[in-house]
Prior knowledge:
This protein is α+β, with helices and mostly antiparallel strands. It has helices at residues 7-14, 93-100, 111-120; strands spanning 17-26, 41-48, 53-58, 68-72, 81-92.
Amino acid sequence: MADIPTKSGLTSLYNERVVNVERMERPMSSSGKGLPLVVPHQGVRVTTESGQQHLVHKGSGFGKSSETVVTGAANMSSNWQVKETRSVSGHTVGDFVKTGGTNYSLVGDNCIHGASRMTGLGNK
Length: 124
């Protein structure tokens, strides 16, 4: 069972400055086995000033107060592939979670929409 972060730990994580964002994609099936669905799952891997990496992604039922969540990048399977990379300045992990969006909608605001908005926070 994963450790449940404390409120102060979450605040510290959300306040970490991001220096790089990578738009990531994997087959919808998390195991990558069986027939891949046409539409992939997407999110962003952020790298903070301290060198930590986190995956920020959204999905139906992923979180309680927001369906955009953060997990350690070490939890990512090898099925994730980098699609785009951008440098970032002036944004925090919390900014990416907020930009990903609170609510999930399969048609109107899914993981691909959230990943697109989050990647847009990167400097061009």
